[in-house]
What does this fold into?
Amino acid sequence: MKAIYALYPDPDSAQRAVDTLRDSGARLGVNADNIAIVSSEPFEEHEFGRGVNPRDHKRFMPWLAALGGILGGLTGYWLAVLTQGAYPLPTGGMPIAPLWTNGIITYEMTMLGAIVTTLVTLLITTRLPNLRRKLYDPAVSDGKILVGVVDPPERSRGELEKALREAGTGAVIKTV
Amino acid sequence: MKSVDQINDDLLRPVVHTSGRFWVAVALLGSVVLAAVGAFSYQVWEGIGVWGIDRPVFWAFDITNFVFWIGISHAGTLISAILRLANATWRRPVTRCAEVITVFALMIGGMFPIIHLGRPWLFFWLVPYPSERQIWPQFRSPLAWDFFAIGTYLTGSIIFLLLPIIPDWALVRDKTTGWRRRLYRVVSLGWRGTPRQWHRLETAMHIMAVAIIPVAVSVHTIVSWDFAMAPVPMWHSTIFGPYFVAGAIFSGIAGLLLAMAFLRKLLHLEEYLLPIHFDNLGKLLLMMSLLWFYFVFAERLTTWYGNEPAEMAVFWTTQRGSFAPLFWAMVFCNFLIPFPLLAITKIRRTITGVVVASSTIVVGMWLERFLIIVPSISHKYLPYTYGHYRPTWVEITILAGTFAAIALLYVLFSKFVPIISIWELKIGGHQKPAVRAAEAVSACPSPAGAKGLELRPES
It folds into this structure.
């Protein structure tokens, strides 16, 4: 992996860097997928914190959680009803498969389905776990914000370095 | 004002440095846990006859502990989820302390139905799945509902606790060397902190918070139905669901406050767990104390007014009979002592005042669980079936072991995980002034002398 990146001490300069990369992206041969932003905390009140790619902040997760909940609920309901059908236990005049009590199992399994689906969706869409080498710098943990370009075109390296440097005073430029 | 570096240093110190206090705490708590393990082993070896239970009292300390610890578990995830959805910014240093309690209390509480079996090695017979072993799963039994409710709550609480830990483990990975770095590299799952990762994490936490609140309410409602579904005097009541949930939140907040005070001292977190956190939770505790009193009064009044003979036998044994000292001790511990302590602002704003109130509430709520269970089953309908119960040293040792176990698990957890969510704490430092002002309005006013935690970007 080749990359050129800068570490910014504050979100405003990181925002300027992202704006510059995005505005001059076509000219420098950099597209949105190649712009990397890494921080040790979310900056959703800044535009760069929502990512440069529209896919970064798509809101499909609640719908998947709801779908997982429905599947979980159906699983719970059928687990109870099919078991009661396979092993009928007449008890105190109650129906063999009563909706009242099976509703409790259905409810709990609905919530479990939604919770587990949320976890799985998070892991898949954020590509975790991922122990392969990715663009990162431990200085991010000191509060620095990393903005860079992965696989930059060779012809634009100089211009990219200049653009990243001009975005903020105190920016530390690194290449890998 | 705290810089990012200072926060990292303060909150990672307990993880990377091991103090003498840590070993003393582990040794003391570990010895009590070992004693409890010894008592339990003795019970397994000798049989359940070493307990004080005898016909008709087959549920006593074990089920009391089960209900009590499941109740304590309501402190964490539920409170954390409510405060997260309400966007209460003061919650940030508190949430992880709270969520940890839920997971450990559920684990400890969940052990008691297994201990109660007498033959714990056959615990898997409890699992309700279609079976060819002639043990039919009974989905109409509240005990099967317990399995699903506690299983869902434990799974949800573990995920709710672990998800926001991942970015903090990535921080530990970057700040350590050697085996720690290798360990935290694996457990942080390769977390980097891209906008997509942050957005997805926050969305997931929001969905989890929405989902976990009704689950938490259902858990203690279903625990109450273990009793309320049985035609036993003073159990068969429609008030039991909300009564148990209110009691669970009440004891849970008290447990959380004690844990926070313990961690504050042990890990030197005085600049993070501020008096305002104790004050705000103290207000919640005050409200729950009133609510608890309302439920007890409503339950007792309805029983007394109905004047049903079997119920009145249980009623009078708790009011002026053999259980009366425990009953009135419960009223003192849950209302008469904590109410004035928490209602008087000057006392509530001292950590000592809140800790004293919480300590009495934890004792009072354990007594409440005991008094729900034992008087009713020892006074069931016909006087010739009445019985008595007196705990043995085995039960008392196991009870003591549970308190030591949760404290020990807490201490060990804080050795591997920053006990305060570092990334969430930092968020307040970079928000725009308008956002901070809006959040300040929603937060409670700081008591005099309790400065809020402020962050400044590194220069």
